[in-house]
Protein 1
Amino acid sequence: MKRLWGSLHGTEPAWSDFLTDLADLTAAIDAEARALGFALVRVKMTGGKSDPTLQVMAERPDTRQLTIDDCSDLSHRISDLLDQLEADGRDPIAGAYRLEVSSPGIDRPLTRLNEFADWAGHEARLTLTEPVEGRKQLTGDLVGVEGNAVTIDVRKHARMTVDFSQIADAKLLLTDRLIAATQPLSTEGADKILTEG
């Protein structure tokens, strides 16, 4: 059966024409990332049928970022892996697609339970699999994690606690507080401005 895991906990059958099993592919990509000392953040198919893109986000555990060289190294390893799977007759993605490898960025997705504790005190948006107390989307400051439960101080409401399995999607929101808490690995080229014509 062809399937794609499109969120933390759920499926998106629209990708069934492209991908045999994202869970298996994610496990294989995770091994390549770990071999380089990186932690895998997310593997996701994006772009629809007109522009299918395999999006891979990873980070160095100590910095929570990747350099351009890190992205290049991981991209080459993943490309080699996909080429080998295709040569073995086990191509996990049917048809043409793009491979995109990146660091998760400042306003990163939150995909692992420990990240909700790591980023406590920062603003996030959680989309739930089903409404809780009439809310399917929770926006506010992350409070922390206890067991498998994530607590968020929902703006203009109250603190709410939901099980990790109830979270379909989550990401940090770009705020001055978050920017102040993160430092780029390199600011090389940041002072150059490109102008057209």
Protein 2
Amino acid sequence: MTDSSSDSATVDPGPTGVVGVIVNPVAGKDVRRLSTGATHTPDTTKMGIVRRVVAAAAESGATRLLLADDPHRLARRAIERLDLPDRVDVVLLSDHVSGSRRDTITAATEMRERGANAVVVLGGDGTCRDAATGWPDLPLIAISTGTNNVYPAALDGTSAGVAAGLVASGAVPFDRVAQPTKRIVVRIARDGDEPIEDVALVDLALVDARFVGARAVKEPTSVVQVIAAIGESSSTGLSAIAGRTHPVDRHTKGGVTITLAAADHVDDGIARRVRVPLSPGTFDTMDVADVRPIDDHEPVELIGPGVLAFDGERDLPIAPGVVAVAHIERTGPMLIDVAKTVALGAFHEAFDVPLDDDPVHAGAATGHDDVDIWAADTGTHHQRTADHDDTANEGTDDAR
């Protein structure tokens, strides 16, 4: 293993086979786990996931692994005594460690500079946002280990590592398995100064507060307005307000903006009253004044005073009368579909090993036509070659 602190001036020109791994040691450990049913993800669990990701990526074609170091030394400890092939180079990115969100931001930026072809991130919505701040359209596999997890998914580390290795090695074409995701871009003009710009991947909220304080938004009556790029019906957190009033998934155009009734409201100002899981296992009644779908690039104003919360975490105070203008655009991370990637790898026989009497029959070099086995919208399997049409159709009919 190489420590990048010894050669930090070196920048890779972008070799193939490079996989990055970022683990947030504090994800899933915020104050919400003390007052709600939020799941605690211990360090041992995170190290186990990292170990499986690394082993599987090396098995599936990765030739270089970039591991982001962290104050808890999770990445270092995860790969101790891990027997990797000699062809695999492991580089520990250790120059950026500060114990803050800057660690993830800087690690993602360095992975882009070093030519990472896929980046596996362990954390919650906030960790994914930080990674996207450092590399806006990073090729991402997001594994859920946080408190509220709308953007990342509960993925097995082995499968995630296999997918990362297949994409990084070129065994599975990146553009066949990755889709651009949305992000919310907010801009605040300032007299005489450069404007402030920031992003969220799931939701942006204006909260009735004067200071950031504890970053998690826990008080339902403090929420003034929410813009959601993702608001699935199964979501938990601020985006669940959208999920319970006007659901929108990560791949559909645009999103929704929701105005909440004031805490000292009169009933005449309430259009809907909705039960929402703002934290895992905890439900609150939200008084909704207005729900409005919005298109991509449609501007939405959030007017201070208050604190802007990005993906459920309070982060940026704005003074009375200050206007933040936000819009949704499809310039976020390129999210890699793990299941589809592994299925394509199987189709192209990327997991095969040579037979004693058939040395050509190995890996992806099988000579099959490059036919998409997944229909664009349905995920239905197609036949591999024209010669197999009848057999494949019979098999499909039998399966039905």
Protein 3
Amino acid sequence: MTHDAATSTVAVAWYGRVASGDPIDVALSLSWQLDACRRTLPDPFHIVATFYDVGSGLAPAEVRSQAGVEDCAGIPIPRDGGLAELLEQANRPDRPFDAVVCGSIDRISRSAQMAASVECELDRAGVTLLAVDDGISVDASGLIDARPVQQAIAEWYLISTPPQRLGTDHAHADPHVRDAPGNAADVDQSEGKR
């Protein structure tokens, strides 16, 4: 990770996401996520861009960014785009940030595969992904990463939560959710065989 030697700051983009809800709840949740990230980032990290979506954590980045545009209207946080735009900017040679911070990895995605894909894309672009609930620590060797534990928790939540509670049709397309014991599809199939 590079930083601006003249100002001794590391430019960071923030990413937040809420599934849906009342506009006031959405605004409060996103504000809370952004404030938590600001409070947790150590010096010399500074948020220079804000990206967020209102939509399912299982939807592809492009779908989230487009679907959430109307839902983001009226939220008092400047929006540089959603996840798709964040990834697009991360891949530009003149990107304005060197790292991305989120409140937790499940804000990127509830799916370990999708979250890992986003993290790999950022890593290929030379951008570090940080998550507040992983703990953001800097020592002589660089950033300390506890993300694998948090990602396992997010994946457990995805697998153990019935699709109707996730509030998304995308859950039915995910084989982990669709085939998980106890989900609606499993119950329907077992009842039909009785």
